[in-house]
Amino acid sequence: MKISLIAAVSADGKIAERADQSSMDWTSKEDKQFFIEKTKEVGTLVMGRKTFATINKGLKGRRIIVLTRDPSKELPIPGVEFTSEEPAVLVWRLEGEGVAELVLGGGASVYGQFLNAGLVTEVYLTVEPFLFGGGVTLAQGFDRVALRLESVKQLNSQTILLHYIV
Ligand SMILES: NC(=O)c1ccc[n+]([C@@H]2O[C@H](COP(=O)([O-])OP(=O)(O)OC[C@H]3O[C@@H](n4cnc5c(N)ncnc54)[C@H](OP(=O)(O)O)[C@@H]3O)[C@@H](O)[C@H]2O)c1
């Protein structure tokens, strides 16, 4: 399974200033466009419940799978599935359904678990021109992961998109 971790990061490696902050607050329109294009191309998007709470709706043309420990307390939303499966179990099930690729949309806890389980195959980081000083680190809780830089794309005069292969 091809699993692409996609994140916007500040120049000091943070994905948010606060846990309840939406990335929409500080990312460029070019990064938002990249996110839309990539997730539409791949079709399946996995994220944690806290990240989903910053969106709180389905996204046209995409299947969203939200990790939560208690799926039964979530109200149904078209195009959104809630699951308590561990990452490896979820990936195994999706492979059985014929899903060949998915985007990992965060947040930090979900990125960390998928990296720790060795499931991430590609990393896309959009570096935005901010230093947050504090905030939510991209991911934690895994051993060193070596990356190979595949491409660097300038999205606008201030923003770059790094594409790594794990
Ligand atoms: N800059 C970016 O590109 C980007 C991208 C994504 C997110 N973010 C930011 O990241 C922050 C959120 O990150 P976060 O780490 O705090 O939260 P998160 O990963 O989005 O969500 C954590 C929640 O997901 C559920 N979960 C995680 N792993 C699970 C598992 N194995 N089984 C079942 N449920 C599981 C739990 O939900 P329950 O509590 O319901 O059990 C957990 O509380 C926000 O500020 C958001 O804006 C930034």
CATH architecture: 3-Layer(aba) Sandwich
CA gyration radius, whole angstroms: 15 Å
CATH class designation:
Alpha Beta
Number of H- or I-type helical stretches: 4
Average pLDDT works out at 96
Bound molecules: NADP nicotinamide-adenine-dinucleotide phosphate
Q: First CA to last CA: what distance?
A: 13 Å
Helical amount: 10-25%
Shape: globular
Overall strand count? 10
CATH superfamily: Dihydrofolate Reductase, subunit A
Q: What percent strand?
A: 25-35%
Within the largest sheet, what's the order of strands?
5-4-3-6-1-7-10-9
Description:
The protein has four helices and ten strands. By secondary structure, the protein is of the alpha/beta class. The chain has one domain (2-165): Dihydrofolate Reductase, subunit A, CATH 3.40.430.10. It starts with a strand and ends with a strand. NADP nicotinamide-adenine-dinucleotide phosphate (NAP) is lined by residues 7-8, 15-16, 19, 21-23, 47-51, 54, 67-70, 84, 86, 105-110, 113, 136.
Please provide a brief summary of the model.
This protein has helices at about 30-40, 50-55, 85-95, 110-115; strands at about 1-10, 15, 45-50, 65, 80-85, 100-105, 120-130, 135, 150-155, 160-165.
Walk me through the topology.
Elements lengths: L1 E9 L3 E3 L12 H14 L1 E5 H5 L9 E5 L12 E4 L3 H10 L4 E4 L3 H9 L5 E7 L7 E2 L10 E7 L5 E6 L1
Parallel strand pairs: 1-6, 1-7, 3-4, 3-6, 4-5
Antiparallel strand pairs: 2-8, 7-10, 9-10
What features would you highlight for this structure?
166 residues; binds NADP nicotinamide-adenine-dinucleotide phosphate; Dihydrofolate Reductase, subunit A; two-stranded antiparallel sheet
